[in-house]
Amino acid sequence: MIDCTNSLLPANPTRPGVLIECDPSVKAIILKYDEERHDYIVEDLDDDRHLVIKESQLQNLKLRLGKDLDDKLMQPDESESE
Fold first, then answer.
1. Using CA atoms, how far apart are residues 43 and 55, in angstroms rounded to an integer?
2. Which residues are listed as membrane-spanning (predicted)?
3. Is 41 in contact with 34 (CB distance < 8 Å)?
4. Does 24 reside within a domain?
5. HEC string of 1-70?
6. Is the residue at 81 inside a domain?
7. CA triplet 6, 11, 16: central angle to 5 degrees?
8. Most buried residue, 36, 40, 46, 72, by most Cβ within 10 Å?
């Protein structure tokens, strides 16, 4: 889901970040999360797969994504019940 590099990027010296690579659909979810409170993203790299995430929020982001994606997978598809 999210592939993190082991190195911290000096995107902003006061807020170190971690470069992540993810599917475009997961990136869209992260961008939506960040619109709420600007908790996660240091920099949106202008492509479909890469973001620089606040190092301090990486674990929280992984947990939130995991929970939300699990919840979506557990919901029955409405088309199957018809």
1. 12
2. none
3. yes
4. yes
5. CEEEEEEEECCCCCCCEEEEEECHHHHHHHHHHHHHHCCCEEEECCCCCEEEEEHHHHHHHHHHHHHHHH
6. no
7. 60
8. 40
Number of domains composing the chain: 1
Q: What is the distance between the alpha carbons of residues 27 and 38, in angstroms, rounded to a whole number?
A: 14
61's tokens: 């982001």
Indicate whether 4 pLDDT > 70: no
Q: Among 51, 44, 59, 46, which Cα is nearest to 22's?
A: 51
Q: Give the 3-state secondary structure of residue 73.
A: helix
pLDDT tens track for 13-62: 565 799 999 999 999 999 999 999 999 999 999 889 999 999 999 999 99
CATH of residue 31's domain is 3.30.70.1220
User: Residue holding tokens 């949106």?
Assistant: 44
Count other C-beta atoms under 10 Å from residue 41's C-beta.
20
